Amino acid sequence: MAHEKELASLDLRYEGLRLKQAGAEERLLGQDEAAAILSLLRISNQRALSILEQAGFIAELKHARQMNVTEIAAELSRSKAWVSVRLGLLSEMSAPVRRQLFSGAFPVYAYMYTVRPFMRLNGVTREQIEEFVGAVSGHGLSVREIEQLAHGFFRGPESFRQEIGKGNLALSLERMRQAPPIPDECSEFERVLLGDLELTQKYMQRVMGKSQDPRLQSRAFHAQSHLLTAGILSRSRAFFHTLRQLHDRNGQA
C-alpha cells in the first residue's frame, strides 16, 4: 500500500540534491525512494524544481538506482535528450562547484548563463572555473556583478584574475566601473564600430549560454532557429577572416 512520504524524509540523503531555500516541504506518494523521486520529477513543472535539482535526482536514478537513460525518459514521459542534458550538466561540474551551487552560495542562473559558457572557450580550464566560483561564492553578489567579474577573470589580465582569486571583489568591481570610456579622439565611425564589437562579444556569450538550454523545445523555435543559424554559419568563415585581419591591423598600429 502506498504511503505518504515527505521529500525531507528520504533518509536526508537527498538533501544535497535540493537547493537551499526557505519554504514548506513538499509531500508526495511513493512505494520506495526511486518511485518518490520519479513522482517529484513528474510534477517538477508545477513544483518549480530547478534544472540543477532535476539533474541531481536524475543522476541518483541512473547511478544509485541503476536506471538507464531510456528507462528514466520513459518513466517521466520525457525525451532521452532531456534526460541526457541534465546528466551532462552534473558530469561537467566539479565537486566544489556543485557544493557551492547546491548550498545556494552561487546563483544557478549565473552559473548556467555566465560561467558555464566560458568552459567552451580555449584556454579556460576546469580548475579556473572552480577557482572563480569559489572566490565569488557567498558574497551576496548580483548576477550582473558576477557577470562583470567573470569577464574580467576569464578575459582580463592575470593581475585581475589574481585580485579576484584573493577575494578582493569590491576593488575588482570598482576598477571595472572605472574602465576608460571610448576615447574622444575616435571618429564617429570608429566609435560605432567599437560599440558593434562590444555587442558582438556580449551576444556571442549569451548565445553560447542559452543554446544548450532544455527549454528550447517548440517546433516553431527550431524551424526559425534553423534558418537563422544557417545564415550565420554561411557567413562565419568570412566574418572571422575579417575579424582576424582587423585584429592584426590593431596589433601593428
Q: State the distance separating the first and last CA atoms.
A: 79 Å
The shape, in one word, is: globular
Spatial sequence of strands, sheet with the most strands: 1-2
Helix content: 55-70%
Radius of gyration: 22 Å
Helical segment count: 13
Secondary-structure element pattern, one letter each: EEHHHHHHHHHHHHH
Biggest beta-sheet profile:
2 strands, antiparallel
pLDDT average, as an integer? 80
DSSP E strands, number: 2
Which percent band covers the strand fraction? Answer: under 5%
Unreliably modeled segments: 1-13, 22-29
Number of domains: 3
Oligomer: single chain
User: Structural class, from helix and strand content?
Assistant: mainly alpha
What does this structure look like?
By secondary structure, the protein is mainly alpha-helical. It folds into three domains: 3-91, no CATH class; 103-177; 219-253, no CATH class. It contains 13 helices and two strands. The protein has helices at 33-42, 44-47, 51-64, 69-76, 80-91, 95-102, 108-115, 126-136, 143-155, 158-165, 169-177, 188-210, 219-252; strands at residues 3-6, 27-30. It has a two-stranded antiparallel sheet. Helix 4 crosses helix 5 (80-91). The longest helix is centred in the last third of the chain and has 34 residues, at 219-252. It is globular, with a radius of gyration of 22 Å. The N and C termini lie far apart (79 Å).
What can be said about this structure in brief?
By secondary structure, this protein is mainly α. It has helices at 33-42, 44-47, 51-64, 69-76, 80-91, 95-102, 108-115, 126-136, 143-155, 158-165, 169-177, 188-210, 219-252; strands at residues 3-6, 27-30.
